[in-house]
Specification:
Elements lengths: L4 H18 L1 H7 L28 E2 L12 E4 L13 E9 L9 E4 L9 E10 L5 E3 L2 E6 L17 E2 L12 E8 L6 E6 L8 E3 L6 E13 L3 E4 L6 E3 L5 E4 L6 E6 L2 E7 L3 E4 L5 E9 L6 E11 L5 E8 L4 E3 L2 E3 L3 E8 L5 E11 L2 E10 L4 E3 L2 E3 L3 E8 L5 E11 L2 E10 L4 E3 L2 E3 L3 E8 L5 E11 L5 E2 L3 E4 L4 E6 L3 E4 L7 E4 L5 E8 L5 E11 L3 E3 L3 E3 L5 H4 L1 E6 L1 E9 L5 E5 L4 E3 L5 E8 L14 E10 L4 E11 L4
Parallel strand pairs: 13-20, 14-20, 21-25, 26-30, 31-35, 37-42, 44-51
Antiparallel strand pairs: 1-4, 2-3, 3-12, 4-10, 5-9, 5-12, 6-11, 7-8, 7-10, 15-18, 16-17, 16-19, 19-20, 22-23, 24-25, 27-28, 29-30, 32-33, 34-35, 36-38, 38-40, 39-41, 41-42, 43-45, 45-49, 46-47, 46-50, 48-49, 50-51
């Protein structure tokens, strides 16, 4: 080893910087927790009782041989919780000891995100808390990593050697959370983690808390397993050597390390040897770097030594070197990051200078900026992930010259446009909203596309207003040449089929006519009603074909002769056998209940010949004849149906 310690230290820093830059991805990998759902936050459903390990994702109890083996418990603040979690909203719990049941155990098990690498150092960690009310504490609560999932045997205790377990000094007699942490070197291929006690009762330390509790029950939270990165150290292993000509030289170091890697200082990607020695033939002074790994400790220690072979050749050596913008290289006695020519002079064994001329080129870093717009609810890949929020995101890619290419994305998220509308329609109307014609009150949604291609949500609240109820003049009869006032109420404005407005009109139809009135209320809703005016000739006679004594209308409770201009009449009614049951010649006229003329005589009450004997409800025949006041004779016949007669 020569005495040029300053040069050696700078070379070590350069080597260490290069190693760290090359291991950025590895460092990230080391920091990854290989335990899925480590704090039990991801659930399938909310637990409501003990033994519901199927409620938590990824975790379960191990496969069992004895069906009587009990199951660990899952707790979540969504419903079922006995104590505060260490972090988050959930944890699990398991039995580690019962004073009345030898070797009673419960376990938790999970398949890790990836298997462990042989010879690699890992850090295991979990947080334990004694359940309130436990009567005992115990040691040996461990974490066992295995290639296959161990089963719970008939004797209940899984016989295994955990890589990490709690010591008697970690047996807290209160309910606070305690961290159990340690490191180990993996055998390789371990895929499963099982948590619990892996020794029988007689082999663990048990502490009686004298609380009256029957056993030990522990909560577990925040379980993790991470790879431990190697530790680099500057260590003098080999000796620097000077040669005065081009020749083979063997550089050797001790064989007490587990692995070796030799590289040139200026070409660290090419491995020269993986043994304790290397044969080189430098044509100029060359520095070689040795990475010697001691895998017996955790973390592994990698000793780094730079061994320089100086060649005492007078001619200088020219070297072309390229780095990327932002990188640096040890040239001219210092770390350089600017393009130029740099000179390094080394002293050979024969006191001859060996000059290294390095022409350094710095390749620029490419960059590009993109402005991207997306709609709310969409995503765009930038910054290494799918982005949904407005912002500036950066991506670093490898360009064709093996240097970084920086992509800057200015992402704008266009929000959805929401418009609220209120529409009132009549009960007999409809409106096109929600993709169809609607006639019911409610809230309807329509999604349109705006000019920028994003959604515009139209929210329409539809209310229903009842159409007006119209009260009108009843249907009636009218003598030809007479007039009558028709009225309508219940609306704000009116339109009659005659073209007239207002709530009343006077009409004098020459024939039976149907009048239609349309009423409109203050909301614009409309209803229609009909009024039928029947025209009665100046001279006529007619007999209804049905009557009922139970009717509340006097014109319908007796069978009357109706008409106009009757001077004399002879009215006879016969039963179905032709027997006379009623006869009258009374032509005394009275005004009908509807105010029109005329009703003749007192009418038939349904009795036999006007006596006290009521007749059965049935059909009858009638004959009526007589003369009008103008001397014209009339004759009519027909049938009558009597119903609801008082018998």
């Amino acid at each position: 080893m020569n005495t040029n310690l300053s040069f050696k230290f700078k070379v070590f820093l350069f080597v260490l910087l290069g190693a760290l830059l090359n291991l950025i991805f590895v460092v990230k990998l080391f920091g990854q927790n290989l335990v899925p759902n480590p704090s039990f936050e991801d659930t399938i459903y909310c637990p409501s009782n003990n033994s519901q390990m199927d409620a938590v994702m990824n975790w379960d109890r191990p496969p069992v041989v004895n069906i009587n083996s009990s199951t660990s418990d899952y707790y979540n603040t969504c419903n079922y919780m006995l104590s505060a979690p260490h972090t988050g909203d959930a944890y699990c719990g398991f039995i580690t000891y019962l004073n009345f049941y030898p070797n009673a155990r419960e376990y938790l098990q999970v398949k890790m995100l990836s298997s462990l690498d042989a010879g690699k150092c890992y850090k295991a960690e979990m947080w334990l808390a004694l359940r309130n009310g436990s009567g005992y504490t115990n040691s040996d609560v461990g974490m066992y990593f295995s290639q296959t999932a161990p089963q719970v045997p008939n004797i209940l205790v899984i016989n295994a050697q955990p890589q990490l377990y709690s010591s008697p000094s970690e047996m807290s007699n209160d309910t606070s959370w305690t961290k159990i942490v340690g490191t180990f070197v993996a055998s390789g291929g371990e895929e499963y983690l099982t948590i619990g006690v892996f020794v029988p009762d007689l082999s663990m330390t048990i502490n009686n808390l004298s609380t009256g509790g029957i056993g030990s029950y522990y909560f577990v939270d925040d379980v993790s397993l991470t790879a431990v990165p190697d530790s680099f150290t500057n260590f003098e292993i080999g000796q620097d050597t000077t040669i005065c000509s081009t020749e083979n030289i063997t550089i050797s170091v001790g064989s007490s390390y587990n692995s070796y890697r030799w590289v040139e200082l200026n070409n660290q990607t090419n491995t020269l040897s993986t043994g304790p020695s290397v044969v080189v033939s430098p044509t100029a002074s060359t520095s070689y770097i040795l990475f010697a790994e001691d895998a017996s400790s955790c973390p592994h220690v990698i000793s780094v030594d730079t061994i320089t072979i100086s060649v005492a050749l007078p001619p200088p050596t020219s070297v072309q070197t390229t780095i990327c913008d932002g990188e640096s290289i040890l040239l001219g006695g210092d770390f350089q990051d600017q393009a130029g020519t740099y000179f390094d002079t080394l002293l050979t064994l024969g006191n001859c200078d060996s000059v290294i001329i390095t022409n350094l080129s710095v390749l620029p870093t490419a960059s590009a900026t993109y402005n991207v717009s997306i709609c709310e609810g969409e995503s765009h890949f930038a910054g290494g992930a799918l982005q949904t929020n407005t912002g500036t995101y950066y991506d670093t890619l490898m360009a064709l010259n093996n240097c970084d290419s920086i992509i800057t994305t200015n992402l704008m998220v266009i929000p959805k446009q929401t418009t609220n509308l209120s529409q009132t329609i009549c009960s007999n109307d409809s409106i096109f909203v929600g993709g169809d014609f609607q006639d019911q009150a409610g809230t309807y949604y329509d999604t349109l596309t705006t000019d920028n291609g994003c959604d515009s949500i139209i929210i329409t609240a539809v209310t229903i207003t009842a159409a007006p109820t119209l009260w009108t003049t009843s249907d009636t009869s009218l003598l030809s040449g007479d007039n009558i006032v028709l009225q309508a109420n219940g609306a704000l404005s009116y339109l009659w089929s005659t073209g007239a407005g207002g709530n009343s009109i006077t009409v004098s139809p020459s024939q039976t006519t149907t009048y239609i009135v349309t009423g409109t209320d203050s909301f614009g809703c409309t209803s229609t009603a009909e009024i039928i005016i029947s025209i009665i000739a100046p001279y006529n006679v007619f007999v209804p074909n049905i009557f009922s004594q139970s009717s509340l209308n006097n014109d319908n409770s007796r069978l009357h002769v109706f008409g106009a201009g009757v001077a004399s009449l002879d009215f006879k009614i016969f039963d179905r056998w032709g027997e006379l049951v009623y006869e009258t010649a009374d032509n005394t006229s009275t005004i009908r209940n509807d105010g029109l003329c005329c009703r003749y005589g007192d009418g038939w009450d349904g009795s036999l010949l006007g006596g006290e004997t009521p007749l059965n409800n049935t059909s009858f025949a009638y004959i009526i004849k007589g003369n009008y006041t103008n001397g014209e004779a009339f004759f009519e016949s027909g049938s009558i149906l009597m119903i609801n007669n008082k018998q």
